[in-house]
User: Which sequence fits this backbone?
């Protein structure tokens, strides 16, 4: 379905596709620096993904932005969903990516603003999406997302990133094993899609 938004190019949202999504806070404010807030945002993302029938294959929640790889769980996708909807099917014919992201942002902003007694404050600036077009691009996106704890100085190494609780790297290690993860990073080097396509996160 072609979705048009004022002042933005039309986006083609395919119900059967994988999407790499990035969102950041307004003014890059570190509103998610406290760990309980990062935990809460990850729980909100998971809850919305389940409600929308969407599996999550990779994720990262930082102090002022997050990344997720989500889509439809199909037999031809060689990854297993680790959060969100974890069964095949779901309401694929009515998927609206904009609504999906806005739901996450609305719930998170309401919760933070209630906690800070700042009703109506805008928390998120915008989001950026990229439709994954190949298996190699999918693995590169997974690696980029899982490298984020290192990239943003939350941990020093990928080994430490396995223990970062708001990233999918630990779950991916548990599901596929260290050898698989190492080979994946070797075969599909980290590419910063957000800089290449103007997201700048």
Assistant:
């Amino acid at each position: 379905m072609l979705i048009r938004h004022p002042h933005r190019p039309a986006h083609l949202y395919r119900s059967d596709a994988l999407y790499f999504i990035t969102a950041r806070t307004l003014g890059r404010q570190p509103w998610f620096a406290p760990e309980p807030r990062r935990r809460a945002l990850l729980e909100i993302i998971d809850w919305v993904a389940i409600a929308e029938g969407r599996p999550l294959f990779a994720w990262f929640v930082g102090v002022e932005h997050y990344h997720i790889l989500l889509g439809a769980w199909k037999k031809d996708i060689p990854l297993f969903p680790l959060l969100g909807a974890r069964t095949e099917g779901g309401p694929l014919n009515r998927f609206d990516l904009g609504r999906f992201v806005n739901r996450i942002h609305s719930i998170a902003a309401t919760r933070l603003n209630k906690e800070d007694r700042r009703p109506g404050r805008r928390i998120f600036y915008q989001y950026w999406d990229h439709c994954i077009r190949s298996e190699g691009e999918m693995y590169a996106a997974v690696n980029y997302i899982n490298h984020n704890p290192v990239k943003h100085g939350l941990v020093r190494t990928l080994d430490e990133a396995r223990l970062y609780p708001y990233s999918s790297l630990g779950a991916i290690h548990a599901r596929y094993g260290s050898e698989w993860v190492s080979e994946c990073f070797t075969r599909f080097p980290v590419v910063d899609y957000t800089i290449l396509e103007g997201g700048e996160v």
Remarks:
- The chain has seven helices and seven strands.
- The chain has a mean pLDDT of 84.
- The helical segments are 35-51, 97-116, 135-151, 158-161, 169-176, 178-187, 193-196.
- The beta strands are 2-5, 8-12, 18-25, 55-61, 65-71, 83-84, 124-131.
